[in-house]
Amino acid sequence: MASAHPSDPTGPTGKLCTWINTIRLDSIPSPVLERAKFLILDGLACALVGAHLPWSEIATKTVMEMEGTGHCTVIGWDKKLHPLSAALLNSTFLQGFELDDYHQDAPLHSNSIILPALLAVAEQTRSQNKDKTKEAAFTGAEFVLATIVGYEVGPRVGMALYGLDMLTRGWHSGAVFGPSASAAAVSKLLHLPSNEIEDALGMACTQAGGLMSAQFESMVKRMQHGFAARNGLFAALLAKGGYKGIKRVYEREYGGFLSCFGQGSGKEPEYVVDEVAKGLGSFWQCERIVVKPYSSLAFTHATVDCVRGLQEKFPEHFKDRGNLRKIRKITVEQAGPTFKHGGWKAERPLEVIGAQMNCAYVAATQFVDGQVLPAQFATNKLDRNEIWELVGKIECVENPAFNEEGKSYRQRMIVEFLDARERVEMTVNAPRGVDPALTNEEVLEKWRGLTADCIEMKRRDKIERMVMGIEGLEDIGLLANLLLGETKSPIE
């Protein structure tokens, strides 16, 4: 009989697998559990809002043409698909409008990877149990514990590759770190033994990848975390079925996950394998997950806050669009990862995805509209002259001093006017959401605001109550049922 232990219990992979297998809900600190519930609520809001965006509809209709009906909810639609496709689409919705969470040190969008995979496997497993009894269902307590496991694993894998460095090198970091998070979460929900968790992680890691050039005009940027959700789910299901994966996948020197993705980092060492299992059960990465207040690339948020700070401190300069025409030049100083990810020069016209990923465009939007929310990225607003006049005056530059540890989100905005005597500036060390983090009350406000025109209030309130009391929910399928049914697009 095969051992239920990982191949090397003392190695980083083995330690991680053992922790995933043994962690229990009563070991989770109350603040971490409470924050996880609000993070889940935020993720569901993003998915409901994103279900009928134009690119979401194209993806859904295309996938539905390829396969028949299944047992897994497609959020915001009156449709069910097979688990892998449902996970892919639901993740695509959740990532659909740059409203979802991110980890501030190891950038990945955890909810878009974890929640779709867990919902899919929960519904699929229930459908396969012939007696359909309550015992066949996964409880809310099991679901939230598995979610927290995913929250903890993804960032640790990312930190082993120096987190933000992956973006600097052109990898879509969440699509690289994400399959591990999905596989870990699903493995926990399925109660896999440690050896099968190791198989799942090994198969998840060999499916990792994603190119950041998807951010300029491609719809596929919205889907790349979906690949991670689907591939981690697939890996865990294969492991459950007895399919063997790569052993010691994180520490293998030849063809290992870290040794391959660490190549070209320019760091010494190229990767830090001990980060994979560092601080498990004592330091909670869940508490480093950030909720977004703006509908744009995370690295643009400090840009937005620079503009907001200027608007508040110097209202006489920015109170109307006539004043904006007196601006001669705007310089935005940024750290390397921010500059490479969001500081590129925008050219007219832009697709929605490019607009949301560009610091200059987002800054101009805040200057003109006073906010950066889904409405600002409606197709009929992307080519406004007043926006592009400002974009042409904005230059993003890398400030090497901001590359020091702890300063990666720092930005300085310098505004020069036609009158050479006038010049104002604003520095933001970290954006709202990072410092200060959105409180649970603010996350709840975001949930209610985003879903107000998306679903009916009665349905919204039921979902909210269910998530807030998720540890007492007898069947997570009840939550999935509330996610089934048409929603409205925020940019119609």
From TrEMBL:
Listed name of the protein: Immune-responsive protein
Domain MmgE/PrpD N-terminal: 15-264
Record-annotated MmgE/PrpD C-terminal domain positions: 294-467
InterPro entries per UniProt: MmgE/PrpD_sf, MmgE/PrpD_sf_1, MmgE_PrpD, MmgE_PrpD_C, MmgE_PrpD_N
Organism superkingdom: Eukaryota
Family note: Belongs to the PrpD family.
Family matches, as Pfam families: MmgE_PrpD_C, MmgE_PrpD_N
